[in-house]
Structure formats: structure tokens, C-alpha cells
Design a protein that fits this description.
The protein has 74 residues and is mostly helical. It contains four helices and no strands. The protein has one domain. The model has no long low-confidence stretch (mean pLDDT 92).
Length: 74
């Protein structure tokens, strides 16, 4: 049985402080060029594989908040 690869960053999202979540969401949406919250949730849940540059941007944003373990389901 093979392990399903997850492109979700839900694990990192759950490690954010509640007060930091709106700002982090705005930064991620800007970095990925997203304009709707539905698009953000689509990416958050891993329904779409991120490009290398998108993954690096997401990791950099989470690093600003002290989150190192970003990828995976919650």
C-alpha cells in the first residue's frame, strides 16, 4: 500500500496563532495570486499541487511565524 502524497498545508495552518491567521492568509493569497477565499481553501486542503515557487513562498510565510512543519493533513 502506498502512502498518498499530501499537498495540503493544513498542518502548518493549525500551528498558527489565531491572531496571526488572517494576516498569514492574506500573505499566502497575495503570493499565490489568489483572489477568492474559496481558492485559498482549495490550496489549503491540498486539492491542487503547488509549483516549486509556490511551495517556497508558502514555506517562507510560515517561517515568518515560526512554523517549520508545514506540509500534510492536520
Amino acid at each position: 500500500m502506498t502512502k498518498k502524497q499530501s499537498f495540503s498545508f493544513q498542518r502548518g495552518w493549525n500551528q498558527l496563532k489565531v491572531v496571526d491567521a488572517p494576516c498569514a492568509r492574506d500573505k499566502i493569497m497575495t503570493a499565490l495570486g489568489l483572489v477568492t477565499r474559496a481558492g485559498f481553501l482549495y490550496r489549503l486542503k491540498g486539492k491542487c499541487e503547488p509549483t516549486v515557487t509556490e511551495a517556497q513562498a508558502i514555506e517562507a510565510i510560515f517561517k515568518d511565524y515560526g512554523v517549520k512543519d508545514v506540509w500534510g493533513e492536520a
